[in-house]
Amino acid sequence: MEVPRLGHGISSPTSPCENMIKNLSLEAIQLCDREGHKSQNSGIAEMEELPVPQNIKINNITCDSFKISWDMDPKSKERITHYFIDLNKKENKNSNKFKHKDVPTKLVAKAVPLPMTVRGHWFLSPRTEYTVAVQTASKQSDGDYAVSEWSEIIEFCTADYSPVHLTQLLEKAEVIAGRMLKFSLFYRNQHKEYFDEARVQQGNKMMPSVKDNSGSHGSPISGKLEGIFFSCNTEFNTGKAPQDSPYGRYRFEVQAEILFNQKTNLYFGDLYCMYTAYHYVILVLAPSGSPGDEFCKQRLPQLNIADNKFLTCTEEDGRLVFHHAQDVILEVIYTDPLDLSLGTVAEISGHQLRSLSTVNAKKDPSCKICNISVGR
C-alpha cells in the first residue's frame, strides 16, 4: 500500500506504522490546522470540489483502536486518493499545567472502503477521551495534495482493557510472583474513625466502596467495581502481617476462610508498580453469584483457587490451608459487605508509612515488567 512521500509537508512517524496498524497505512503528518491554514512549505493545495466528510460515525471502539466512517458524495469518490485524520486527546482542565502538552496526531491514510480501522497503541491510550476530524485529499502528479475543508469535530472515548489484555498482564505477573508463603489472616488498616462509623452508622459492617484509579489506566475495575480492600502479605522472617501500614493505625483481622473458600471465586485484576522495584497485584474475591462476581465474570480472568501463582486455598487433612505469593504485594478486593463481628479490631504498634500508600497511585508507564503494548 502506498505511503506518501516525505518532503511534501509530511514527517515520518516515531515508529514504523507497518508494525502498529493492521488495516491502514498511516503516518504522522504536519499538515495544517482545522481552520484550513496551510504552511508555506506544506505542499498542499485547495480543491473546493472535494467533498467534506459528513455524519462521521465512530464504532467498534477498543482500548487502542476504533472504526471510522462517514457519508460522502459517490460522484467524488474516484478523485479521492487519501484521507487526513486529525486525532487529539480531549483537553483535561485538571491536567498538570507544567507537563508537556500531548502532541496532536495527524494521520494520512490511503483511501480505502469505509468503515476503516485506526489502530495504534503509540497514539491511542485506554479510557481516554479524544476528538477527531477528517479531510478528504487528492494526491497530484507533482506529489502535492488537494484537500477538502475539515469535517465537524467528533468526540469519543477509548475502552478499558479487554480480558485478552488482562491475560497478558496476568502472564507477566505470574513470572515475578515468586514462591508461596502460608498465611491465615486477611487484614485491613484504617483510621479509628472509619471503624467507629462502621459500627454506629453502617450496622457494624464495613461496606464496599468504588475502587479508586490506582494501577493500570485501562483497568476495567477502576472507578467501577465496588469492594473492600484487604491485605494478606506476611513478613518472611515472622510469618505475620507487618506492623507498619500506610492506611491507618487500626487493623481489622479476619480468618482467611471467612473471605476465601470453595464458595468464593477469585479473579486477576491488575499488575502495576509506582516507579519502584516491587510490584502490586490486584486480586478480586467475589462470593459466587454475588453482584461483584457477575461484574468480574464479564471482565476479568478467573483463577483456580487451588492452583495459581498468587493466592491459593487448598484442603489438607480436612482443613483449609492458604498461601500467598512472596515477591509481589497483593491487594485483595472483597466485593461484599463484611460484619466487624467476624473479626477483631486493634491498634498496631508500628508506624503509618503514608509514602507507601497506593491510593490513586499512577502506574509507571516505562516499566517493562508490568506494561503491555496497548497503552498504559
TrEMBL record:
Ranges of residues in domain Fibronectin type-III: 52-161
Pfam families per the UniProt record, alphabetical: fn3 (PF00041), PHYHIP_C (PF19281)
What the entry lists under Gene3D superfamilies is as follows:
Immunoglobulins
Matches recorded under SUPFAM superfamilies: Fibronectin type III
Gene Ontology terms: cellular component:
cytoplasm
Highest taxon, organism lineage: Eukaryota
Q: Which InterPro entries match?
A: FN3_dom, FN3_sf, Ig-like_fold, PHYHIP/PHYHIPL, PHYIP/PHIPL_C
Task: Please name the PANTHER family in this protein's record.
Answer: PHYTANOYL-COA HYDROXYLASE-INTERACTING PROTEIN-LIKE (PTHR15698:SF8), PROTEIN CBG15099 (PTHR15698)
Function, in words: May play a role in the development of the central system.
Q: Which family does it belong to?
A: Belongs to the PHYHIP family.
The protein in question is named: Phytanoyl-CoA hydroxylase-interacting protein-like isoform X1
Q: Which organism is it from?
A: Acipenser oxyrinchus oxyrinchus
